[in-house]
Design a protein that fits this description.
By secondary structure, this protein is mainly α. The protein contains ten helices and no strands.
Length: 240
């Protein structure tokens, strides 16, 4: 129970620290696109209004990349998303085709996770390293030193696979929603699907990483205890 309370306190503290950033992200990625589409569809038509509504998220991603001024796994992922978003508007077609091409970003990123797992270079590891470097985390060297341990490699692989399948699944659900609801309704449904998926994957990642870390610590402690017991036994068995 005490452990649960401590986790809830940490989660609450994290939410308070990031409330402003989360609110700004929702404004840029949800409220502004909805408002721009609603205000411009009468004059521009559905296709051009949809293209105009994508400006805030794309500009936000570019601004964040410039502000960070760092080329790492996170930056590359952001740049890939920007490039795919821009490419999504090339090729013409109706509004449904445009909405479908927009989902290529999520599908491509999800596939990148799966491919990285398949070639033995799980993307989660490189994203974690990039995030730790940005925060100047003091335990980054200890984290990197574990990358060759079987349990650590298995943990990174499982996380990468879960994120890959999760993002591809989210994209497929969103694709189905494109045909099931109106454009205006999709502006509400789409972000809910996306944020729910990412939130669920993030919560699962925290739980799974915590569980694996405790298992690793328990295994290390057990190995140390066994080594100490063996040393003591050898000392007792040694001839006088």
């Amino acid at each position: 129970m005490a452990d649960l309370r401590a986790r809830l306190a940490q989660a609450w503290a994290y939410a308070r620290r990031n409330a402003a950033g989360t609110g700004l992200e929702l404004l840029v990625n949800f409220a502004l696109p909805y408002a721009i589409y609603d205000l411009t569809k009468g004059r521009l038509g559905d296709v051009h209004a949809l293209m105009a509504s994508s400006a805030p998220p794309i500009l936000w991603s570019i601004a964040e990349f410039i502000r960070r001024r760092r080329v790492d796994a996170l930056s590359i992922l952001v740049l890939a998303g920007i490039a795919l978003s821009l490419l999504g508007y090339i090729g013409g077609g109706g509004v449904k085709a445009l909405q479908l091409r927009e989902r290529l970003v999520t599908i491509s990123i999800g596939l990148a996770f799966l491919v990285s797992a398949a070639i033995g270079r799980p993307l989660i590891y490189y994203l974690a390293i990039a995030g730790m470097r940005r925060r100047n985390a003091p335990d980054i060297e200890a984290f990197e030193s574990r990358r060759h341990l079987p349990m650590f490699k298995r943990t990174m692989l499982v996380m990468t696979l879960v994120w890959g399948f999760g993002l591809v699944g989210e994209a497929l659900v969103s694709l189905a929603a494109v045909f099931a609801v109106s454009i205006k309704t999709y502006f509400i449904v789409g972000p809910i699907i996306g944020y729910t998926t990412v939130g669920g994957l993030t919560a699962w990642t925290y739980w799974f990483a915590t569980r694996q870390r405790r298992k690793g610590e328990a295994a290390t402690a057990a190995a140390a205890a066994a080594a100490a017991a063996a040393t003591a036994h050898q000392g007792r068995a040694a001839p006088e």
